Amino acid sequence: MAGGAALRLETAELRPYLAGMDKMTPDLSLARRDGLPDALRVLTRELPRSGWEAHPNFDGLVRFWMQRHMMFRDLLDKLQGGQRALLAGEVEGRAQARETQRYAGFLLNQLHGHHQIEDMHYFPALTGLDPRLEEGFALLDADHHALDGHIHDMAETTNRFLQSVGGADERETAGRLETALDGFNGFLTRHLDDEEDLVVPVILKFAPNL
Questions:
Q1: Contact assessment for residue 40 and residue 136, using Cβ atoms and an 8 Å cutoff
Q2: N or C, which end of the chain is more exposed by having fewer CB within 10 Å?
Q3: pLDDT tens, 158-185?
């Protein structure tokens, strides 16, 4: 990308894409499931989303954690909207590249760091609170391994677009990035929704000291 550095995400820290995936049956993998199985929704039925914000244990950690998830969703929406505008001829390539570099770099790095904190601190503290949900935390761990691979791929696809801006293949790489963002949105939305449905009721019910 002329006049600026391409997005760089340090991928050496990312765990292997397939590591941990053997913990899940294929129909529960991030790429194939359409929600949590009924056995992992026992607390969600007891504490449905409609009542979360009114619960006395919602403010503090849960509200902050949910806000982080909303930030990830909003950043991804901005990236997708920007690529669509570029392909529709509504914005100029270099201007959109600057926005893409800023939003994508922040999203991917923040998302990776968020997962590290969950894996190292929050999930170990929550796993034993309700034995019925232990498989659910293994599922979320497998999601994080899978998402590491998708984060790596998204960084590479974004780099290719940024490096092409102003060149003959700018539109082609912009289209590839739009397609990649659509797929990434599906994976991330599935994970965030399921993670919230599993984790939030645990915190609301048990109020662990995290």
A1: yes
A2: C
A3: 999 999 999 999 999 999 999 999 999 9
